[in-house]
Write a structure and sequence with these properties.
The protein is α/β, with parallel strands linked by helices. It has helices at 15-24, 41-51, 70-73, 90-97, 116-124, 147-157, 170-177, 187-192, 238-252, 259-265, 270-280, 293-303, and strands spanning 37-38, 58-62, 79-84, 104-108, 137-141, 163-169, 196-204, 209-210, 217-224. It starts with 14 loop residues before the first helix and ends in a 6-residue tail after the last helix. It binds S-adenosylmethionine (SAM). S-adenosyl-L-methionine binds at residues 36, 38, 63, 84, 110, 141.
Length: 309
């Protein structure tokens, strides 16, 4: 098991070292940036177990903080490209992660503004012998404010990322893992289902962070499993993915309404909808929360051009 045995995965993952580093650099945790630093080495060991990193992996890490998870990722991956929004953490990261600088690329800025090309360029500059400088895995203790967006956007915009192992607020984990008809199921879950599936999860209590957050957390693993058209078995094209996402948004736009009413309020033609519902066997009176990602793929296909109202 990765991280088991006597040796710590991360020398920073304990309250004493974290306090020492924060004091040395005069850094106070910033609540607005979700700065709750991990102080549990066993949590890091479990994250590494789920990530299953190898020398060919390029890890995309959002929000390295003081480098607690980063120092554990560096020896196991070919390269780690971390994006940190808080510029005052740059000297801290240079100090804590510079020890393995051959594998460490750091970009300072908002991860929401960073694309696959930016990460690949930063990794290329390291000059490491890698099959590709493009990120293969997202492994992060995510800032909770942007966690849900980063998870979906990375799957949408970074096609080489085939696994995500991410710490999120337990509520977000519930939305990610929800199934049709469940309380937490919504447009977000249905859209995520176009790209991947949950293959692991464990819970993490507030005591594993400094300062402790007011919420429960969970680590989830999502493996890329692109949606296919159930009729042809073929993966969806970018146009089909866009059309299906549009149908999902319209179906959930007014989630207390029937799918027919919600979609027609969003501009879909009622007659075209009724034809499509009949062809794929969806009751027009059902609510969107009862339908699976596959149902939405079928519906978008049958609506064809009309799906993009
Ligand atoms: C929950 S802390 C995790 C820190 C560290 N990875 C750990 O496990 O201890 C989240 C980190 O994300 C950073 N952050 C917040 N918003 C960000 C954004 N939009 N882009 C990049 N980093 C961000 C914060 O400054 C903070 O360092």
């Amino acid at each position: 098991m990765a991280g088991s045995g006597d040796k710590a995965c991360s020398w920073l993952a304990n309250p004493r070292q974290t306090r020492l580093v924060l004091e040395e650099f005069g850094h106070g945790a910033k609540h607005r940036l979700g700065q709750n630093f991990l102080v549990s080495d066993s949590v890091i060991a479990s994250i590494l177990d789920l990530a299953e990193l190898g020398e060919d992996d390029v890890v995309f890490e959002v929000g390295p903080g003081i480098g607690t998870l980063t120092v554990a990722l560096l020896p196991l991956a070919g390269a780690v490209c971390s994006v940190e929004a808080d510029r005052s953490l740059e000297p801290v990261l240079q100090s804590t992660c510079a020890r393995d600088s051959e594998r460490f690329a750091l970009l300072m800025g908002d991860a929401l503004g960073v694309g696959e090309d930016d990460l690949a360029q930063a990794v290329s500059r390291l000059g490491r012998p890698l099959p590709s400088p493009r990120p293969t895995k997202l492994v992060s203790n995510l800032p909770y404010q942007v966690a849900a967006t980063i998870i979906l956007r990375t799957l949408q915009a970074m096609p080489h990322v085939h696994r995500e192992v991410v710490m999120v607020q337990a509520e977000v984990a519930d939305r990610i893992a929800a199934t049709p008809g469940g309380r937490d199921y919504g447009a977000y879950t249905a859209k995520l289902g176009l790209y991947g599936t949950v293959t692991g999860r464990f819970e993490v209590g507030p005591g594993n962070f400094l300062p402790p957050p007011h919420v429960q957390s969970a680590v989830v693993r999502i493996d890329r499993r692109p949606a296919v058209d159930p009729q042809t078995g073929e993966p969806l094209s970018p146009g089909q993915l866009e059309a299906t996402a549009h149908v999902i948004d319209a179906a959930f736009a007014q989630r207390r309404k029937t799918i027919r009413n919600s979609m027609s309020s969003s501009g879909f033609d009622k007659a075209a909808l009724d034809e499509a519902f009949a062809r794929v066997g969806i009751e027009p009176t059902v609510r969107a929360e009862r339908l699976s990602t596959e149902d939405f793929v079928n519906l978008a296909r049958e609506l064809g051009e009309g799906a993009l109202a």
